[in-house]
Amino acid sequence: MFSKILIANRGEIAVRIIRACKEMGITTVAVFSEADRDALHVSLADESYCIGPAQVGQSYLNMEAILSAAVVSGAEAIHPGYGLLSENARFATLCQQCNITFIGPTGEMIEKMGDKDEARRTMKQAGVPVVPGSDIVESVDEALRLGAQIGYPLLVKARSGGGGRGIRRVDSEAEIERAFLAATAEAQSAFGDGAVYMEKFLFPVKHIEVQLLCDAHGQVVCLGERECSMQRKNQKLLEESPSVAVSPKMREEMMAASAKAAKAIGYRGLGTIEFLLSQDGHFYFMEMNTRLQVEHPVTEMVTGIDLVKWQIRVAAGLELDFTQKDVTLNGHAIECRINAEDPYHDFRPSCGQITMLHIPGGPWVRFDTALYQGYTIPPFYDSMVGKLIVHAPTREEAIRKMQAALCEVVVEGIENNRELQLDLISDERFGDGSYTTDFLAERG
Ligand code: ADP
Ligand code: ADP
Ligand code: MG
């Protein structure tokens, strides 16, 4: 096992990883930008290093500075969290070259799955159903030709896209030229890669994903599904496990398809296979995330398995000490993302000092955050500042527990989406589980 790990991230996920390390007896090294001197992850870690100015490009994405901090501190491994460098193949490879374990799959594997076009082809070959669509589209003419084959509406999607960005909807042939050119330009500036492909726009659909955990000894375990259909602009807002829409038989099928996918590519580490589930009960591979996910806590709650600890153990080469047969899904878990943004003003990000903070408690209520009273949220980073997670024997009880817990949350000094979350979980279509990814757009 590693004796020292550097956490190449910030915010709640850095705190989450530091906690896992502490429980495992592993020394922690934090890195931080000039804007994050007072951040919680810095005070919780055993050691910390400033790696550059506030802008992520110069700090949390600065591979040389992060690797230098790892070498200087003697860290044997780097945990990248989510976002930032977590799906950066070059960084994973650089770590390996510096003799530091990247806690995640190999650079090669990240490249294979991070290229969403190649991932689609790989999955098709492995016999996993994929969303109908095209390979890379090179020109407007090709987009027109393929568009006619796929049919409208369709989506133009960035090959290197992520975080819900780089996706454009096209409702008719007349819109395709503009969408293709805009998506290419947007993808080029956001991801440094302008390549796009097209997919049939499926609707109404649910977003269902399967959590995988694979060790270096060929063991593949699926930890049930998460439903992430509650989205705004293709970004997840709240997640739950299990999904009301997934029957035991469908769960078996989805987990079998996911395990097949993982085995086909020799995957190692924590990973997620994302599917779209149509109303006729068919599911289609959408993408694989080769990292820890924001919504991992709901899976932890229903399985009782600490995903971060296992991710670290598997990266250290340890064997899973349980098999698929040992995995049982208990009760129901829901997560609400608490974002520092103003739902009444087009979700504009909000920053500033937290003048009053009250975090809900009680049995089976978890609040993952890096906030503390008096902390000043800097304007440079992601607006997600906390995750409220509850667990109960039934979905009905989990919803009531979430309502009670949300009512208790107090984050004063900034705008946040707590009330929107309350509205969402109290909505009839959430209550009966029939909500699909277009729920927020439809609701207005
Ligand atoms: P998850 O898939 O874990 O639910 P999200 O899709 O919300 O998580 O992404 C997690 C974080 O990573 C978000 O802060 C998101 O903005 C960021 N992110 C994900 N993929 C990318 C990417 N390719 N480029 C930049 N940021 C990304
Ligand atoms: P990202 O890498 O940004 O997470 P995804 O490919 O996972 O991108 O898509 C993000 C979201 O966009 C999905 O959760 C879903 O709501 C929507 N989406 C993506 N592809 C399709 C599709 N073909 N049809 C309908 N919705 C889609
Ligand atoms: Mg996705």
From TrEMBL:
Span-the-membrane segments of this chain are none
Query: By its UniProt entry, which Pfam families does this protein fall under?
Result: Biotin_carb_C (PF02785), Biotin_carb_N (PF00289), CPSase_L_D2 (PF02786)
Judged by the first EC level, this protein's enzyme class is ligase
Domain ATP-grasp: from-to ranges: 120-316
Q: Name one GO biological process term.
A: fatty acid biosynthetic process
Gene3D superfamilies noted in UniProt: ATP-grasp fold, B domain
Please name the SMART domains in this protein's record: Biotin_carb_C
- Catalytic activity annotated for this protein? N(6)-biotinyl-L-lysyl-[protein] + hydrogencarbonate + ATP = N(6)-carboxybiotinyl-L-lysyl-[protein] + ADP + phosphate + H(+)
Record's keyword terms, sorted: ATP-binding, Biotin, Fatty acid biosynthesis, Fatty acid metabolism, Ligase, Lipid biosynthesis, Lipid metabolism, Magnesium, Metal-binding, Nucleotide-binding
According to UniProt, the name of this protein is Biotin carboxylase
Q: Lineage in the entry?
A: Bacteria, Bacillati, Bacillota, Clostridia, Christensenellales
